[in-house]
Amino acid sequence: MLPESVLTQAAKEMLDWQGHGMSVMEISHRSPEFIQIAEETESDLRELMQIPDNYKVLFLQGGATGQFAAIPMNLASSTDTADYIINGLWAQKAAKEAKKYVNVNIAATAEPFTYVPDQKDWKVSEAAAYIHTTPNETINGVAYNFSPEAGPVPIVGDISSMILSEPLDVSKYGVLYAGTQKNMGPAGLTIVIVREDLLDRARDETPLVWHWSDKSIAGSMLNTPPTYGWYLAGLVCRWLKSNGGIKAITEINKRKAEKLYSAIDESDFYNNNIQTAYRSKMNVVFQLANPELDRTFTDNAYPRGLKNLEGHRNVGGLRASLYNAMPEEGVDALILFMKEFEKKYG
Ligand code: PMP
Q1: Nearest CA to ligand 1 atom 10
Q2: Distance of alpha carbon 123 from alpha carbon 193, whole angstroms
Q3: How far is CA 141 from the centre of its chain?
């Protein structure tokens, strides 16, 4: 979801952005007008996430999946080893892609993905190039409840499904990355936040579009950046700032998740099997006591405006994503529907 006020503003500015007689899509990415959009977005993101000055922020294409390959290419040589912490399907996919470029050591795995392994139990390799983590596992609904302790080995975090949803100590990470389509804008824009001292490790064969150092020198404009996505992400950042920033949204997100998990826990008809301490506030997965009713549930929910409740195709069941733009009333409406559905089919 995107905030309604953001979509309304984008609609209003569609044909004529700030009196320039053009849509943002028609403005050259090298024009002063677009540079202004680009700089404001970066500055607002830095302010919201309190990104330290010794980190660069890149605006790229290729999604988080592109970064699954870009990370080893930018941080490791082909003979290096990188540690991966597997707490869900996205971490698994990240490790699988990385194997093409680096020796992957699975330092911890938490199958069947109902918790996050304690950092003291990670079996890290002696001289890893980096440690890859996934603070929020979108498909499995499992989230870290701690920031990893940073040591000499840089920690990489895939924050695709939790960026801007709660406080995050950027300084604990060497690299953070996210596709923006969940909490920050449309699909097509990828954010990479990288500590400056890590910018000298890229392999020569790293594709230019994912070469963090070259991209950083060019202000993410080595080639045409995803300008409209960049603009929309800027509107989302401004919306978040004017609504109290990370502090305010954290409270709202906490309330939304607590309500929904309570409704699930109070019922024998619905179930969530993630260990309580590691339940995601963004992606609430749940199962019906009778999985044959999954389809009836989503079919009945749809006309009530309750959409996209199917679990990921790899895990089945149901999933409610409570990203920043989902208002609390949306969660209330879902809970009301769940109670009615249970009365009828339970
Ligand atoms: N990592 C996580 C945690 C995700 O949630 C997703 C997308 N759902 C991805 C990676 C893949 O992102 P993309 O589709 O932008 O490549």
Answers
A1: 64
A2: 26
A3: 12
**Residue 20, CA distances (Å) to 6, 12, 82, 161, 313 in order:** 19, 13, 49, 35, 45
Nearest CA to ligand 1 atom 4: 160
Strand pairing class (155-158; 142-143): unpaired
3-state secondary structure of 131: strand
CA of 65 to the centre of ligand 1 (A): 6
pLDDT in tens, 153-168: 999 999 999 999 999 9
The amino acid at 342: E
Please tell me if the CB atom of residue 44 comes closer than 6 angstroms to any atom of ligand 1.
Answer: no
The catalytic position among 44, 56, 90, 212 is 90
Q: Is the CB of 138 under 6 A from ligand 1?
A: yes
* For the CA of 136, the nearest atom of ligand 1: 3
Confirm if 275 and 140 have CB atoms less than 8 A apart: no
9 has pLDDT over 90: yes
Residue 93 is among the residues annotated as catalytic for this protein: no
CA of 21 to the centre of ligand 1 (A): 36
**Is a pLDDT exceeding 90 seen at residue 150?**
no
pLDDT tens readout for residues 75-91:
999 999 999 999 999 99
Residue nearest to atom 5 of ligand 1 (CA): 138
Residue 17 a catalytic site member: no
pLDDT at 343: 97
pTM of the predicted structure, to 2 decimals = 0.97
Catalytic (active site) residue 212 = no
Mean pLDDT of the residues in the chain: 97
Q: In whole angstroms, what is the distance from residue 25 CA to residue 34 CA?
A: 10
Mean pLDDT of 213-232: 97
